[in-house]
Amino acid sequence: MEKNIRPLILVSNDDSIEANGVHALIDVLVNFGDVVAVCPAHPQSGQSMALTVATPLRITRVEDYKDAKMYKVNGTPVDCIKLAMHTVLDRKPDLVVSGINHGSNASINVIYSGTMGAAFEGCAFGIPAIGFSLTDHSPNADFTPCLPFIHKIVKSVLDNGLPQGVALNVNIPNSIPHPTEMRVTKGCKANWSDEYRKYTDPWGGTFYMLTGKFVNEEPDNTDTDEWCLSHGIVSVVPVALDRTAPSDIDTILNILT
Amino acid sequence: MEKNIRPLILVSNDDSIEANGVHALIDVLVNFGDVVAVCPAHPQSGQSMALTVATPLRITRVEDYKDAKMYKVNGTPVDCIKLAMHTVLDRKPDLVVSGINHGSNASINVIYSGTMGAAFEGCAFGIPAIGFSLTDHSPNADFTPCLPFIHKIVKSVLDNGLPQGVALNVNIPNSIPHPTEMRVTKGCKANWSDEYRKYTDPWGGTFYMLTGKFVNEEPDNTDTDEWCLSHGIVSVVPVALDRTAPSDIDTILNILT
Fold this sequence. Notes:
The structure is a homodimer.
Chain A: E1 8-12, H1 20-29, E2 34-40, E3 59-65, E4 68-73, H2 77-88, E5 95-102, H3 114-124, E6 129-134, H4 147-160, E7 166-172, E8 182-184, E9 190-193, E10 196-200, E11 206-210, E12 213-216, H5 225-230, E13 234-240, H6 249-256
Protein name (chains A, B): 5'/3'-nucleotidase SurE
Organism (chains A, B): Lepagella muris
């Protein structure tokens, strides 16, 4: 395969350019094409599709990692994808890949996830996009179990594409023994309760820190990402860029008239 | 109607507690129930469903506006809704209303909108939720044309509810003459191009500021929010909290095997 026809793969994440997860991801991706990584300079967990509106953004090249060109941006994952498209890349990427996130983005977490924010933004540019997450928040998590699944999924998507407007939310359990199976499945219905811990500062003021308890609303449903993850199986959930619900138009018409 | 059975309405926005838009919204809402507004202390446009993960959040009561209790939070619109639910309210609200945003949230903008982030978060708590936006970015925009539509929509939703997981994205044109009609319609397919302006700082460094040109991909389609807005008609688009796409599972199975 000639150098100039290798696929171009744009990488981002939400744990920052320093995170081990994005380096593990690049370890796999350099086998498939030319890799450019544009990642946040600082951690951006929970940034969803936030973009920076009113402050200056800077993009800075840092040291290459393997054959990948590496850049950092003082913004969100969405900023990274947008700036990459507008300032770094000379052609449209064949694939956008985000991750590997340190922590699960299964179930309801997908709506808050910065990792998936970058993937959705790739989707908005009409590029096949995948987010990968490992269910281990540790900065020193072992990403080895992810690598064969990333290899298989990236190869398939480069070969076959994805439906327009649809990205993949891939979550990999940190189970022992390592996962050997993956399933295409549904996002589990769930919510978060007890979301804040209350503190008193040294001057008597009150502040809150995000915490929370994950509540699985369908623990017995075997056709969900949470079920897969708790049974040592990699989950692949198709997710949509479009947030509109045209099938509800008639219902809303009845409600409003 | 007795005081203790009046509906409880939780209000937020993304333009901050200082914005005229949220005060115009409250002008209408106090006619319907007990109003508690929990808004960002500082502007949060483009914050989507971002939440604050690693820094302390503070919620501070400020002066009442009319009969509404007013609070500010040093965070995002999603933080505001979550903190309101966990620290301020003693019962589940009957309605979450976000806005009135200074600027359009029609079409693709819904995915980045902090205003709609607050509405989606209301939806995540299982509460009927509505976001209102006026197509005028000015801090001194005239919100008068919005008020009869807000009155009508809020009354209908308090009376009839909304489908679980579905919120309303309401955009109001700042057209002259003022709008007299509203339609329940679809989100317009669109994208943003030329998204950044490049600058040189006093020390020779390069930075970028978000700008962009809105590109309507279906200008002749009369069944979209953009068409309504450009014809002086209020648009109501049902939007979904759920970002998963279970109808694509079989397609993805074929792609991956």
